[in-house]
Amino acid sequence: MLPRFLAAVLGFTACSLALPAAGFAADIYGAVSAGASIHEAVDIDDGTGSDFETTAFPGFLLSGAAGLDFGLIRIEGEILYNRYELDDLEFAGADESADGGFSTLAGMANLFLDLPTPIGITPFVGGGVGYGEASANDIEFNGSSLLDDSDTGLVYQARAGLAFAILPLTDLTLGYRYLVIDGIDLSDGAVELEDDDLKSHVFELGLRISF
Fold first, then answer.
1. Strand 191-193 vs strand 144-167: parallel, antiparallel, or unpaired?
2. Greatest Cα pair distance in the chain
């Protein structure tokens, strides 16, 4: 299902890029970004009624997008990859060592509102929806395998930031995004992720180039 959705996002982008030919004035742009990803804790049930609460090291998010800039409004298609590794698991009131982590690969359709200023700095707000695959990657507890599974679900995000005009057609962007993949079922035998979503706070740096 995920490859089909990624194809749909690419199709959305291709159709959007055809709008100027239909008489809509817009600039085509490409964008890339990378950032630090901080995840919200989730609970893992070991099947015996005991819960493990996760804590993680800051991870990373990589993103590539293409879209149309209509001046105040931008629309784009985006593909992103978000990953972070576990630090430890809280079990019975104590923190125990853990290995492995979580990752998300998703395709997004985004809409943004830009608020240009006369000083070359443009605040922006927006968000998007999409579909993605979440994975629990070889999560181990004290050397024993605990959870290794993947599932697909709805992805949504809210974003805000600043764009700095560093060249006539190039903006440097500083941004924040709140990213959620919802409705996932990660399980491995009797072990399962009790929360049905993964949530991340991402602080990122990017480049946006108009053509």
1. unpaired
2. 63
